[in-house]
Amino acid sequence: MSIRPVKRLIKAKPTMEGAGVHLRRAFGFGNTTEFDPFLLLDDFRNDVPEDYLAGFPWHPHRGIETITYVLAGTVEHGDSLGNKGAISPGDIQWMTAGSGIIHQEMPKGDAAGRMHGFQLWANLPSALKMTPPRYQEVKSPDIPVITDDDGTRVRVICGHFWGKSGPVDGIAADPTYLDISIAPGRRKALPVGTTRHAFAYVFAGSGKFCNASDPLAVPTEPVGWADTNPPLSADNRSLVLFDRGDEVVVQAGDEGIRFLLVSGKPLEEPVAWYGPIVMNTQEQLQQAFRELDKGTFLKGGKT
Question: 0.90 exceeded by the pTM?
Answer without folding.
Answer: yes
